[in-house]
């Protein structure tokens, strides 16, 4: 049985000036699943991901048509964008810890929201680091700079920082592309445990990764979603010839 629909886009078009980067995207993304976006460079994966927490608002000359329904409400309408970005957190390609201690990296968001109680902050820091599978590695150095962590640890710290805001959805744009294979596997394992609590949407250039970790996969090509289905179906028996050509490495 399918999980509850979290995001539902209807005829979503996005233009950067005259250039149409997304073409009539209709997609349902379900709760407690990992959804992967694959496709060649420049096909619109990051653009679509950024639509889901209105990060494209920060880019000039973007024009969006169609609907993005999140929990029943169109997020392009009159909504609280800060609140949306709390509910829909984002992890970027390059780990970007703040130049402060490990503890403060995690406590920063809750503090900005007005939380001052030290005991509560301590709990959030510990819980978030545990959920991001980093606690054991950093529990004895919480007051040391986050910049002293390895790349893979920094990325898990960024995931913990997102978790500390208690999001419902976590967007990840190529979160392991800067990491070695072992750090990558740790993040992949982590996603399997996180999807029990959150909705995870990940952009990846690695077919192996999409195959290993996602429940559903969308194949993008030149701004269109060519095929969106259960991951095993996409990788073993795709309906569209272009999907098959891409996953077998014939182009892209
Ligand atoms: N800020 C921008 N202004 C103008 N055009 C943009 C902007 N951002 C992206 N584009 C264009 O929109 C298209 C889709 O870009 P996008 O970054 O979404 O692709 P992508 O699938 O994430 O690619 P990659 O795999 O290389 O990250 C590309 O043609 C890109 O040049
Ligand atoms: Mg991208």
TrEMBL record:
Any GO BP annotation: phosphate ion transmembrane transport
Domain ABC transporter span(s) in chain numbering: 7-247
Lipid bilayer topology: Peripheral membrane protein
Domain of life: Bacteria
GO cellular component: a single term: plasma membrane
Keywords linked to the UniProt accession: ATP-binding, Cell membrane, Membrane, Nucleotide-binding, Phosphate transport, Translocase, Transport
Record's subcellular location: Cell inner membrane
Alphabetical list of InterPro entries matching this protein: AAA+_ATPase, ABC_transporter-like_ATP-bd, ABC_transporter-like_CS, P-loop_NTPase, PstB-like
TM helices/strands, residue ranges: none
Record Pfam families: ABC_tran (PF00005)
Gene Ontology MF terms in the entry: ATP binding; ATP hydrolysis activity; phosphate transmembrane transporter activity
Known function: Part of the ABC transporter complex PstSACB involved in phosphate import. Responsible for energy coupling to the transport system.
PANTHER family recorded: ABC TRANSPORTER I FAMILY MEMBER 17
Name of the protein in its database record: Phosphate ABC transporter ATP-binding protein
